Structures are given as C-alpha cells and as structure tokens.
Amino acid sequence: MVRYNQPLQGAYYPQQNFNSPICAYVQGEAAAKAYPVAPGQFAVLIDTELPVIYTKTTDQFGRPLPVRILDYVERVENSPEQVNNYVSKSDFDNFKNEIKEMLKPRQNNYKNQSAKEDKQ
Fold it and tell me: What is the pLDDT along the chain (120 residues), one digit of tens a residue?
C-alpha cells in the first residue's frame, strides 16, 4: 500500500534560508559587485565614499543577479519659511497697485473709444 502524503525517500528539497540580509560597507561600485554573497542570500552594501546603497542577490545556485544601485538623500524637515505660502498685506497691496497701473492705459483707451462712439 502506497501512502501519498509522505515525502519520497531520497528526494532533494532545497533548503530555504530565512536569515536576515547581510549589511556591509564597501568602497565603490566595483567592490560592491565583487562582494561575495552566499547562494540564495541578499546583501545590503553601503558605500563609504558616496551616498549610495547597493543591493546584491544571488539565486539558489549562487549566480549573482544584477546589482541594484540606490542613491540616497537626507530628508530634512520643512522649515517655517518653506511651509508659509502666505503673502503679507503690504506685499499684496503693492502688487495690486502695480496691476492697476499696468491696466490704466488700457482703461483709458477703452473710455476714449466708447466716448468717440457715443459722439457719432
């Protein structure tokens, strides 16, 4: 009698590794590409010369996958000057007066044309 729910003897089951990724420091892209990573593993490599992080992975047979290159920048909190999108009343009044001055010649031309049309 054969039982189907039992594993076959002598069958090969690849061992799964659930280890945390390796984190190491390297000097440049060439060193990141040359960094040894065990089969089926993942490594985070931090560049000591540039603001760059490399991720390197190998498949279950140890063949390296393409190295991913990630640039990083520092996140800074917004300063109050950057958040403030308001205009002061005096700045707004100055802007309003500039617009009125720019529109005066057009208003005068329109009044002159309408006055000429009324006379005719």
Answer: 555 555 555 555 455 554 557 899 999 999 999 999 999 999 999 999 999 999 999 999 989 999 999 998 888 876 655 556 788 899 999 999 999 888 877 666 666 666 666 665
Domain that holds residue 96: 85-119
- Kindly state whether residues 90 and 54 are assigned to the same domain: no
* C-beta of residue 65 within 8 angstroms of C-beta of residue 58: yes
**CB distance 23 to 3 below 8 Å:** no
The partner residues of 44 in beta bridges, in order of sequence, read: 23, 55
**End-to-end CA, the chain:** 117
The answer to whether the Cα torsion of 91, 92, 94, 99 is positive or negative is positive
Q: What is the pTM of this model?
A: 0.48
The residues facing 57 across adjacent strands are: 42
Q: Residues 89, 115: one domain?
A: yes
